[in-house]
Write a structure and sequence with these properties.
The chain has 249 residues and is of the alpha/beta class. It has a seven-stranded mixed beta sheet with strand order 3-2-1-4-5-7-6, with helices on both faces. It is globular, with a radius of gyration of 18 Å. 38% of the residues are buried.
Length: 249
């Protein structure tokens, strides 16, 4: 994967030492097993080269007081690979934050492709725009600022999306999913992040708004004959969670 702004300094290249990655302080539901963290670092050292632009996005977001809840590098790379695998040209994202995952998506679409991303807060959108500019992908990205439940219905259906990624407030998962389904083409993919939540979604003793949001989504999909889906549980440097992968048939 190509990098921008000189991913490695001459000193690092001459010394043979890899550039130092930004040390994230994830906001997590649980503390990850050290083995999971070590495993992520080990595999990433082979498969995900140091990238100045995505590292900058993490640093710039943290410097502006944003919570560290973006996907981890392995997830970002997976989203990029999935988009490239299906030849996605138009991608819809719900939940921009600092634009970390958005950059991975923008790099997956062709030069005439587009990522439309929804962000609730204008101050976060501003940080994301800075990160897009630094990464050199601004021309491929359109940010819709405001509640996604209000901005998504304004999008027309005449030009469908190939893939949608939902990673926003979990209580509104079903609302976002139904809008994504309206906007995604037949044969398109909808991915919903954070649907396992350290196993709390399956725990009958837990009943907060985030858990209820995931359960409502699952209940809907069970009876939606136009959608086929599965949940993939994951363990990583971000803890125990998972994502839902849905095909709009």
């Amino acid at each position: 994967m190509s990098t921008t702004h000189g991913a490695e300094t001459p000193a690092a290249l001459n010394s043979g030492a890899p550039p130092e990655r930004f040390q994230r302080k994830y906001a997590m539901l649980s503390t990850p097993d050290p083995n999971w963290v070590r495993n992520d670092n080990f595999h990433n050292s082979f498969l995900i080269p140091f990238d100045d632009a995505t590292e900058h996005a993490l640093k710039h977001s943290a410097a502006n007081g944003m919570p560290d809840i973006a996907v981890h590098p392995g997830q970002g790379k997976l989203l990029n690979l999935l988009a490239r695998t299906i030849g996605a040209k138009r991608i819809l994202e719900v939940g921009t934050l600092g634009g970390y995952s958005t950059i991975w998506f923008a790099r997956a679409v062709p030069e005439d492709g587009q990522v439309v991303t929804c962000e609730l807060l204008d101050k976060y959108a501003k940080v994301a725009r800075d990160n897009f500019e630094y990464a050199g992908v601004s021309s491929k990205i359109k940010i819709l600022v405001g509640p996604a439940a209000e901005t998504l219905p304004t999008l027309p259906t005449d030009e469908k999306f190939d893939l949608a990624f939902i990673d926003a407030d979990k209580a509104s998962n079903l609302t976002y999913f139904l809008e994504a389904k309206r906007l995604v083409k037949r044969g398109g993919v909808i991915i919903v992040d954070n649907v396992v939540r350290n196993g709390t979604v399956a725990n009958p003793d837990i009943d907060d708004e985030n858990v209820r949001g995931v359960r409502r989504l699952l209940e809907h999909i069970k009876n939606d004959k136009e959608v086929d889906a599965t949940t993939i549980g994951t363990v990583s440097e971000k803890g125990y969670d998972g994502f839902l992968y849905a095909l709009y048939q």
